[in-house]
Amino acid sequence: GDHRDLHLSIRRQRQMCIRDRNYIVAIKDKLGIVLTNSGIERFSPELNQNVLKEKGCSSSLNTKKTKDPSKVNLIANVLKPGYRLQIKENEFIFLKNAEVQVYELEN
Questions:
Q1: What is the rounded CA–CA span in Å between residue 61 and residue 28?
Q2: Positive/negative CA dihedral, 71, 83, 33, 88
């Protein structure tokens, strides 16, 4: 008897997990709508731009090695998008920096 009860409770837990996941996705969607309506937007910096010149970027400690010296400090990947609030045409307040992976010269 115990064995089947265990299986049932595992199956019930799995169903709850799926339900929770759907719930979380729904919240994220709603949050996205709320953010957009308040002028907050997600952004991803352009690849191959110099991270030092791009606003709202934080370099991850995890870099991408390159043999090309001209690629050093350029954005290789966007790991997590950032969030910014537009105040004027080309003016933003950065609420959360985008996390980027930059190129580093191989030794």
A1: 27
A2: negative
pLDDT tens-digit map of 56-87: 999 999 999 999 999 999 999 999 999 999 88
Beta bridge partners of 77: 101
Q: Is the pTM of this model over 0.90?
A: no
For residue 16, the number of C-alpha atoms closer than 13 Å in the C-beta half-sphere is 6
**pLDDT above 70 (res 16):** no
